[in-house]
């Protein structure tokens, strides 16, 4: 699987890339049909404490899978996004088996 990182109003972070890569590789081990992942990390200034956004697009057979999470920290956003993708992948796997 090819993983691309893009940062918007944030400095590149090897620590965040390592965390996201490790989580995405676990998904790839479970769902071997994943081709590519695009991870977008963005910081928004707003009145609430949230504003650390992680968006992930996964390329796999069928329509693109996408998730976006807004949390207090990038780490939490990454973990929540991966959990959401896992639910989507489980549904996709079920559809692939039925055909």
TrEMBL record:
InterPro entries: RHF-like (IPR036567), RHF/RaiA (IPR003489). Signal peptide: none annotated. Pfam families: Ribosomal_S30AE. This is Ribosome-associated translation inhibitor RaiA. It comes from Arenibacter certesii. The lineage of its organism: Bacteria, Pseudomonadati, Bacteroidota, Flavobacteriia, Flavobacteriales.
